[in-house]
Amino acid sequence: MTGSLKPHILPSISACISSSLSEPTSYAQAIKDLRWQRAMSDEYNALIQNNTWKLVPPPPDANIIGLDYNQTFAPVIKLSTVRLNDDEIIVLLIYMDDIVVFGSSKNLNHQFVSSMHSEFSMKDLGPLRYFLGVELVPNSDGLLLLQCKYINDILTRFDLAQTKPVLTLLHSKMGWNSVESQLLDDVSIFRQMVGSLQYLSFTRLDIQFAVNFASQFLYKPRQIHLQAVKCIFRYLKGTIRNGLQLYARSPLSLTIYSDSDWAGCTTTRRSTSGFYIFLGDNLISWAAKKQHTVARSSTEAEYRAPATATVEATWLQFLLRDLVIFLKTPMIAKCDNIGAIYLTHNLVYHSRSKHVALDYHFIHEKVKQGNLIVSHVHTSQQLADLFTKVLSSTRFQDLLNNLHVRSSPFD
Questions:
Q1: Domain named Reverse transcriptase Ty1/copia-type: which ranges (predicted)?
Q2: Residue in 376, 142, 177 with CA at minimum distance from that of residue 265
Q3: Which residue, of 181, 212, 242, is where some domain finishes?
Q4: 350 lies in which domain range?
């Protein structure tokens, strides 16, 4: 990237996609389906037609790789590939052989797709509607991201499709550490259930706290833990049309909400940090994670939360610049702990702050450079509470509304 590029607002974005809406869970299952047999044959024939490989005699000193079909390696790109041409931009999101294309004009998108068609055998499935288990539903405000199909799939997988749905999620830790509950004879199902819920965090912020807490019991789960996880599945069935709203029109500014409990883990006494990052009105990044070391004070625990979030927000700034989107205002971090806010401006104000790891001084440097403004937010307005605290049903729903979790009507 060079400094000669002028910032501009991208016009309406169109997209093209190649993806599949139905996937078997094993090869044995796929081979029984004529459609998948045909798809596998088409895939193989495409590799042959595109001269993907050529069989040649090996050199005398070559090290021939043995049978390693149980090992997989997919050299796919993790980030978006960006191509620039004067004032136009096109971005390719590539996962295996599925490609999402969006650019500064429909004409540019069509030119790219036509160029790809001239070189490769591929399908253009039109505007983006479904990708990697996420459904994109257009509405009057923009797009609603849903994972209804994935939820139905995991409900069926764990024989919970007929379970009674509920509309509220249990947010209490009481009983989770009970040693009176019987240990599970087979822990594999519990681990699979928790693992399947992790992918839903892409759109379902409402289950993040419960899933993270359940993950702490993967080693020796008990019956009470299994019942709690089943309650999460029942909640998902009752709120299957909930998703994350993205707005088409929104200001270009980064705002961080971060929070932490203090010694919340009763086993290790480590604290849990959580944060949300908004680009204007759109929630674009979030995370909740147990801190690596024990915090000696609530101020230290709270300080680590915005520090971690600032690292993520700084990376997002760089990504936006690569997409020719330049922010004109500093990042704003919202914190509800006065001591932590003061610590971002003066790291040596108290002797008890000396042991704070040096990597957390990153946020202090950002403040000094004028790239970050840390401001106080009242606890009642702290959106990151959803990741760190046990909440009442009313407070829980209020936070979801402020985080733009919406429900889509049934088709």
A1: 90-168
A2: 177
A3: 242
A4: 251-388+395-403
Least Cα distance to 154 among 97, 237, 87, 212 occurs for 237
- Measured CA to CA, the distance from residue 159 to residue 150 in angstroms comes to 14
Q: What is the pLDDT of residue 2?
A: 38
Q: Which tokens sit at 343?
A: 């610590």
What backbone phi and psi angles, to 5 degrees, belong to 249? -115, 120
pTM: 0.78
Looking at the fold, whether 262 and 399 belong to one and the same domain comes out as: yes
Other Cβ atoms closer than 10 A to 24: 12
Asked whether residue 296 falls in the same domain as residue 228, the answer is: no
Domain boundary among 179, 210, 242: 242
| Total Cβ atoms within 10 A of residue 56 | 6
Say yes or no to pLDDT of 351 above 70: no
Residue 409 is assigned to a structural domain of this protein: no
Beta bridge partners of 138: 143
CB atoms within 10 A of CB 157: 13
Question: Are the beta carbons of 273 and 303 closer than 8 angstroms?
Answer: no
- Distance CA(75)–CA(32), nearest Å, equals 29
pLDDT on residue 16: 41
Tokens 């037609």 belong to: 49
133 Cα distance to chain centroid: 12
Closest to 336 in 3D by CA, of 262, 225, 247: 262
140 belongs to a structural domain: no
DSSP reduced 3-state for 115: helix
End-to-end CA distance of the chain: 44
The residue-averaged pLDDT of 242-263 equals 91
Q: What is the CA radius of gyration of the chain?
A: 24
| Residue 6 per-residue DSSP state | P
Tokens read off for 75: 């050299």
DSSP class of residue 183 equals B
Number of domains in the chain: 3
Q: Does 259 share its domain with 382?
A: yes
Backbone angles phi, psi at 92, to 5 degrees: -115, 125
Q: Does 2 fall in a domain? A: no
Model pLDDT for residues 201-229, shown as the tens digit of each residue: 889 988 988 898 888 889 889 999 999 99
Q: CA–CA separation, 321 vs 389, rounded Å?
A: 35
Query: Is 285's pLDDT higher than 80?
Result: yes
Secondary structure (DSSP) of 222-269 = BHHHHHHHHHHHHHHHHTTTEEEEEESS----EEEEEEE-SS--TTT-
